[in-house]
Design goal:
About 45% of the residues lie in helices and about 15% in strands. It is of the alpha/beta class and about 200 residues long. The chain has two domains: about 80 residues, 2-Layer Sandwich (Alpha-Beta Plaits); about 90 residues, Glycogen Phosphorylase B (Rossmann fold), CATH 3.40.50.2000.
Length: about 200
C-alpha cells in the first residue's frame, strides 16, 4: 500500500553508451528493474542535440520517479544491483561525494577508487586521509557549491589528468584497503594487544 504522506523522489541520469545495441538492451532492462521497486521511468531516450562546450555531452537521458525515498532505497539496496556495483561504477565519468557533515573513510569512496573512477569529494572527516587533492582525487570545501562545480568540471574537461588521479587512487586502495592489507593490519593489531597483555612479543 502506498503511503499517502510519502513524497515522490526523482532521479535523473545522463550517460554514454558504447553503441546502439547497448542502448537498446538498457532501454529494455531499466523499466522492468525500477518497476520492481516502485519506480516509473518518465523519460528515456537518446539526445538529438547537446550543448557545445568544454565538457563532453552525454548521449542518453533517463528520468525515474520513485513513489518515496524508501522505494528508491530499496532499489539501491537490491542484492542483484549490488552484484553489478563494479559495472555501474565503471561507466561513471566522475564519482562525487558532496558530504557536508563528518565522515569516516566512506566505503563508497573506496569502491570508486577500486573501480578506477575519478573522484571529487568534500574535505570532511576522514576523507582527506585518502583523497589527496590533485593526487588521488579533487578535494573541495564542504558546503561550497561553486568549489564542487569547479571540481566536477575539472574532471570532465581534462580526462588525462582525471585518469592519472584515478590510477593513483586505485593503487592506494590496493595497498591500504585490499582484503590482504586489511587483514594484515588487524592481525598485527590483535597480536600486539595479546602480546602486550601476556608480556611477550608478537611475530606473525
Amino acid at each position: 500500500m502506498t503511503d499517502p504522506e510519502a513524497k515522490p523522489v526523482y532521479a535523473l541520469n545522463l550517460f554514454d553508451v558504447a553503441d546502439r545495441d547497448e542502448y537498446l538492451a538498457y532501454a529494455r532492462r531499466s523499466p522492468r528493474e525500477v518497476e520492481r521497486h516502485g519506480g516509473r521511468v518518465i523519460a528515456l531516450g537518446e539526445l538529438t542535440d547537446a550543448i557545445v562546450g568544454e565538457i563532453e555531452p552525454r548521449q542518453v537521458l533517463i528520468l525515474v520517479e520513485w513513489q518515496s525515498r524508501a522505494h528508491f532505497d530499496s532499489y539501491r539496496e537490491d542484492p542483484e544491483l549490488g552484484a553489478r556495483l563494479a559495472d555501474l561504477l565503471g561507466v561513471m565519468d566522475c564519482f562525487v561525494l558532496a558530504s557536508t557533515r563528518t565522515e569516516g573513510v566512506p566505503q563508497s569512496l573506496l569502491q570508486a577508487f577500486a573501480a578506477g573512477v575519478p573522484v571529487v569529494a568534500s574535505d570532511v572527516g576522514g576523507v582527506p586521509e585518502v583523497v589527496a587533492d590533485g593526487d588521488t582525487g579533487i578535494l573541495v570545501r564542504a558546503g561550497s557549491a561553486l568549489d564542487l562545480e569547479r571540481g566536477i568540471e575539472a574532471v570532465l574537461s581534462d580526462r588525462g589528468a582525471a585518469e592519472r588521479r584515478a590510477r593513483a587512487a586505485r593503487a592506494l586502495v590496493e595497498a591500504r584497503f585490499s582484503h590482504h592489507a586489511t587483514m594484515t593490519r588487524l592481525l598485527d593489531l590483535y597480536g600486539g594487544l595479546l602480546g602486550a597483555r601476556a608480556g611477550v612479543g608478537w611475530a606473525r
